[in-house]
Amino acid sequence: MVESDSPNYQLRTQLPQTDIELFRALKGRQPSALGVLYDRYGSLVYGLALRVLKNSQEAEDLTQEIFLNLWHKGKYDPARGSLSSYLTILTRSRAIDKLRSRNTSFKFLERWSQFISTQPGAHTPVEQADLKERSQYVRDALTQLSQHQRQVLEMAYYEGLSQSEIAKELDIPLGTVKTWARQGLLKLRKTLQDLIK
Amino acid sequence: MFGSPSPEHLEELIAGYVLGNLCSEEAEEFKHLLAEKPELIQQVNQLQEVLGLLPYALPEIRPPQHLRLAIVEAVNDPVNPKLARKQFVLPWSKIVASVAAIFTLALGIDSYRLRQELSSAKDVLTVLDGRDTHLYSVKGKDKKSPAFGSVLIDFDADKAAIALNNISSPPTGQSYWLWAVVNDRIIRCGQFNVGTNGFALDKISVPDDAYKEGDEISKLLVTLESSESPSYPSEQIVIVSAS
């Protein structure tokens, strides 16, 4: 590899590369660390914000809010999980919140996002794989779910709908929605085992 | 009392808990199980991580390039925002006096012209006759820039006024825009005009929802924009809040 030809060579040799090290550099007020983290997770955060909010301007605003929040407040605790997980939880939570403020009749699942691990954990392989690899892994895992399982999980996750709202929208019994969602999630865990251990 | 659940039922309960879809009986049962076996939390966390992986399956969409610039610019200022904030609530007379001082410097001893400009200033500043008016000092971003001035913002009325000295007219096709960094957001305050004599005095209607109670401005920017309605500040920052 001819790294010296790369314009980022100097940056790469000076900055630590793991998320944790970058986060520590960020806490040490190194703006370049935020730039590297943005390059790493900007599209993930923006893509999620756009999927939930369905509005590019709001997605941009939220992406900015998430990264500036990381810089100014830095509430991420490495002992509680991966940085990417923290960013997606925060993004999803705030995006759903904005959706709710658009329409107060929206109810949404927030239990999972409020409940953050208290277990000091080693960093998961998910953090080490690159974004494209992870994306492919998760896409493959989703194809192994039934269409119904995937649909109810995505409606709950991206649209913030409660199970009863999903049941109403799809015109199926509530119990069926619950079963599909639970089985879908458990199946995903089995398929994505390597990424979360 | 709840018996010992089968592994399948336990998995169902954990998944239901993470998804927030436990019925009241299941919730009660899971509460007891958690109390008996706190180690179940680990499985809860695991399923939460799984749920958190869903966005990775979304098609990769690159955010617009200006977004990265806006974020990096917002943190690149070496000045601690708390120290940089020039925010004083001033009595009305002092606000007018401070703007008058700018014009005095701009116009030297030309008292007739000063009176004219002060009259114009008062006209602009009447939009700021509110109880929550804040004054910010600003200066040229480039150290060699002679530009300096003040920005006044009335949070209640969503209005602002800007007075700048030693600022050149914008190049053809471009205009000056004022931006505020409020908490973690960049807010577009509005466009303003510059006179031919090197100084600017204009009023700006700030968008209604730009500020909420408790918001604090950590930085102000003035940029040169080619767009008629820019969403984010360009890289051409000419004025920043003074430290």
How would you summarize the topology of this molecule?
The complex is a heterodimer of chains A (197) and B (243).
Chain A: H1 9-14, H2 19-27, H3 31-53, H4 56-72, H5 83-102, H6 111-114, H7 125-128, H8 131-143, H9 147-159, H10 163-170, H11 174-191, H12 193-196
Helix pairs in contact in A: 2-3, 3-4, 3-5, 4-5, 9-11, 10-11
Chain B: H1 7-19, H2 24-36, H3 40-52, H4 65-76, H5 81-84, E1 88-89, H6 92-107, H7 111-125, E2 133-140, E3 148-154, E4 159-165, E5 175-182, E6 185-192, E7 199-205, E8 217-225, E9 237-241
Antiparallel strand pairs in B: 1-2, 2-3, 2-9, 3-4, 4-7, 5-6, 5-8, 8-9
Helix pairs in contact in B: 1-3, 6-7
Any idea what the radius of gyration of chain A is?
Answer: 18 Å
Q: Determine the fraction of residues in helical runs of chain A and give it as a percent range.
A: over 70%
Shape of chain A: globular
Main sheet makeup of chain A: none
Q: Per CATH, which architecture of the largest domain in chain B?
A: Sandwich
Mean pLDDT reading of chain A:
78
Give the oligomeric state of the chains in this entry, treating copies of one chain as homo and distinct chains as hetero.
heterodimer
Number of helices of chain B: 7
Structure in a nutshell:
With 197 residues, chain A is mainly α. Chain A has helices at 9-14, 19-27, 31-53, 56-72, 83-102, 111-114, 125-128, 131-143, 147-159, 163-170, 174-191, 193-196.
